[in-house]
Amino acid sequence: MLELVIVDDEALARMRMRNLLADLAPELPHRVLGEAGSATELRTLLSTQQPHVLLLDVQMPGEDGMHIAADLKARAARGEQVPHVIFTTAFTEHAVGAFELAAVDYLVKPVKIARLLEALRRVPAAQDSELPSITVVERGRILRVPVTEVLYLKAEMKYVTIRTREREFLSEEPLTALEAAFPDHFVRIHRNALVSRHAIAGIERARPGSLPSPDGEADGERSWQVLLHGCDERLDVSRRQLAQVKEFLRA
């Protein structure tokens, strides 16, 4: 279901938008998570809610809608999960700048119900948000890391490192809980590591000079390591999990 936030400094404009959305409910199921009359109110709301789309006014006191959209675009470029933007404004002159900020659409007030429906049907977030993801908190921001982008999960001290091709995230969720939540996505290779099934390129003996894992091969034999697609890093395979990893590779 599409989840929205209405952002407009005029209470009457917010009420009218709610009425339009209510009329659209039979054709487009949705949920309004809240309203904001300023950028400050919006940021407070986004600290606890994760809407698919903002219906965003342009001209507001203080930080305007264009600045809000620019900030969201910059955050998206850093890998954060941010809502899509549909501008709703009485002015036409900001349209070019709006689309440069990756807006889904630009609606001129008074917004027509047919145009609103057309714009909302173009929002991809409703589908994207259904993809499985791991939620993490980073410097006060709530981020969703799509499971399909994860290469591996590795428990270290009290955190789990979530490794993608681009960067690492830290989660306080136990490794066992993540394994139970996504049983079809990961293969356990060690008591402290899960590897994404799509990321496993193969296994080979550890290179000479590599530090053996605590439960690696005994009697001077080199242990096995997993090779990853798109990553030079190698991960130790424990003796206990070696048979399972080999079985996965033969499947």
From TrEMBL:
Q: Which SMART domains match?
A: LytTR, REC
Keywords, A to Z, come to: Phosphoprotein
Entries under Pfam families matching the protein: LytTR, Response_reg
Q: List the InterPro entries.
A: CheY-like_superfamily, LytR-like, LytTR_DNA-bd_dom, Sig_transdc_resp-reg_receiver
Q: Does the keyword Transmembrane helix apply?
A: no
Q: Which residues form the Response regulatory domain?
A: 3-124
Q: What is this protein called?
A: LytR/AlgR family response regulator transcription factor
| Residue ranges constituting the HTH LytTR-type domain according to the UniProt record | 134-251
Top-level taxon: Bacteria
Q: Which organism is it from?
A: Piscinibacterium candidicorallinum
Q: Which residues carry this modification: 4-aspartylphosphate?
A: D57
The chain's coiled-coil residues are none
